[in-house]
Amino acid sequence: MSLLSVEDFSVHYRTRSGPVRAVDGATLSVPAGSITGLVGESGCGKSTLARAIMGVLPEAARVAGGRLMFEGTDLVAMPERARKQLRWRRMSFVPQTAMSALDPVQRLRGHFAEVLCERGGSSRTAAALRAAELFDLVGLSPERLADYPHQFSGGMRQRASIALALALNPALVIADEPVTALDVIVQRQVLDVLRELQARLSLSMILVTHDMSVVAYTCDRVAVMYAGQVVEAGSVRAVLERPLHPYSMGLTHAFPDLAGSEAALVPIEGSPPSLLNPSPGCRFAARCPFAEARCHERAPPLVETDGHAVACWRADEAAALRVLAGQPAVWAAMAA
Amino acid sequence: MRGVRALFRLLRSEPFAAVGAAIYAVIALVAALAPVLAPHDPQEILRTGRRVARYMPVSPDYWLGTTSSGRDVLSQVIFGTRAALLVGLTAAVAVVAIGTVLGLLSGYLGGWVDRLVSKLADVVLGLPFLPSMLVLAALTRPGTTVIITSVAVLLWPNTARVIRAQVLSLRERSWVDAARMTGCSPGRIMFVHVLPQVLPLAALYGSVAIGWAILAEASASFLGFGDPATVSWGVMLQEAYANQALSRGAWNWFVPPGIAIVLMVLAGFLISRGSEKLLFPKLAEQ
User: What are residue A6's DSSP bridge partners?
Assistant: First the structure.
């Protein structure tokens, strides 16, 4: 059974021009003891989904439907009081901007004391020991607990944020773009920390990113989001090697190959559709080189076969489409 | 120790603040040692032989002369520091406390709390300071408490507005968001995470409020709304005025308390100038 399952879940933002469907009927399952990547381009709703799972949405946003089943209970139906009990104890968050996500006037020690004593109910001395242990776990020297956040480098702050997230042994850790603001060497180090901790503590984690190489390096499973919906989900190996959705095919070609092949990068032309009044058809149809008439009329359902789910009318032709998707001319034609 | 050394380094680099701090230090010292420093009891009616020593000029016996009722001016100025500090500090603390808490609530919680506090601040800012204080003093029993209360009631909006503006910017920072994620209550976020970052601003407004409070006390006392039983610079000026000290040429009576008031208010201003440079280093670069 999965630890968290997102079922037909929607979040809308109130705006002057009407509701923006940031997350619109997303379906996703996060198995226990593995890292699930959530990928998509900017504005596809991946961060909104991550925040909705934590239950900390901006004021303008509201849950518009669906369920979030976490450890057997529906988070959406849960009163805010009970929700707050779960926060950080059962699920924690590694923020995108660890550079600025630590209170600048508190020593790191203070951050741990707050989480461990206020939220975890441990004593001051127990908290100090646990903080040292956590710092050790993420590869930071426990003496640095006496320092202020500005005395840390970006990578160190991100490690500290990870340590904070693990403080109360949560069942689920959600990391929102944990390495986006870091240079690639430090990215690698932080991702290694995440991988190692996952293996050692058999963590369950959702890793939100726009970077396919981060997914390939870190994750066990991956869900591809496009315009507020999950369009493809499955094991990393299956999705990266045999993508079934044209968008995933495009994404795999739009990033440099990890093996370093010299093939030209193929951009996906155009930009995501407005989520104010989405078309009734497939959201990707307007940018899809393989779109047919039915794609524009009706949205394809997310269908799962052998643990690999896809929402595409032409999924059964995927093998042939993959060959075509490898040709830059096919995508370039969409620009015209 | 590190803090003390840093403070000294700071004062050296900010001569304005150093002078202001020095004035405060001297006044605080004088207030603490008043019974030792003052040659006489400030309320004692002095006599030469059998006669009351009225309007004595400056002399070795009475360094600043005496008042119309034969009291030693120097001793009164020295004991006046106590009243000044009491009024100044209490009122400043009250102004800063009310202003900071209301500014914090208003800026962080927003909604109806913000609207209520902002409207209230607008109304109070519309009241003219001195007349409102005199009305408050006239409605109740004149005395130090009324003066402190009215300074607190009339001056908090300035602090509250600045703190609110600062909190509006701070509440959008990602570490506030992160604190919310960890399950911090709004109260904890406000008072543990946001408050320490607005304290420097609050202190700045506090140092200005000290000056205002002392001026207010002096004005109210001068106009006869002070407590005649206390020894304060304002009460001294009022007595000097009532006894035509100016036309008698008794400079030694009313100039010293006047200078003392000016020094105290100036010190608050100098300190706020100095801390402004400290808080907003970009201003100094321009």
Answer: A28, A68
Residue where a domain terminates, one of A151, A169, A187? A169
| Parts of chain A with a pLDDT under 70 | 1, 97-99, 256-264, 335-336
Flag whether A95 is in a domain: no
What is the tens place of the pLDDT at every residue in A218-256?
999 999 999 999 999 999 999 998 999 999 988 887 776
Query: Which residue is associated with the tokens 């009927």?
Result: A25
Find the angle CA(A246)-CA(A250)-CA(A254) to the nearest 5 degrees.
170
Q: Residue A157 belongs to what H/E stretch?
A: helix A154-166
A88/B174 touch (CB, cutoff 8 Å), yes or no: no
| Contact present, B23 and B263 (Cβ < 8 Å) | yes
Quick check: A93 and B192 CB within 8 A? no
Q: How many CA atoms lie within 13 A of A145 on its CB side?
A: 21
Cβ of residue A60 closer than 8 Å to a chain B Cβ: no
ipTM value, please give it: 0.73
Residue range A74-98, pLDDT digits in tens: 999 999 888 888 888 999 999 876 6
Q: Is A326 left (phi over 0), alpha (psi -120 to 50) or beta?
A: alpha
- B68-125 pLDDT tens trace: 777 888 888 889 899 888 888 999 999 999 999 999 999 999 899 999 999 999 999 9
Closest CA to B144 of B223, B93, B207, B83: B83
Residues in chain B: 286
CATH tag for B16-285 (out of 1.10.3210.10, 1.10.3720.10, 2.60.40.10, 1.10.10.10): 1.10.3720.10
Nearest partner of A206 among A93, A330, A101, judged by Cα: A93
pLDDT reported for residue A205: 94
Boundary (domain end) residue, out of A141, A169, A197: A169
Min Cα distance A60 → chain B (Å) is: 14
Residue pairs spanning A and B at CB distance below 8 A: 50
Q: Do residue A155 and residue A176 come from a single domain? A: no
Q: Whole-model pTM?
A: 0.78
CB pair distance less than 8 Å for B182 and A105: no
Query: Cβ neighbours of residue A262 under 8 Å, at least 6 residues apart?
Result: none
Q: Which residue pairs, CB below 8 angstroms and at least 24 apart, start in B114-120?
A: B114/B164, B117/B160, B117/B164, B118/B164, B120/B157
CA dihedral A220, A226, A227, A230 (to 10 degrees): -50
**A176 CA: distance to closest CA in chain B (Å):** 12
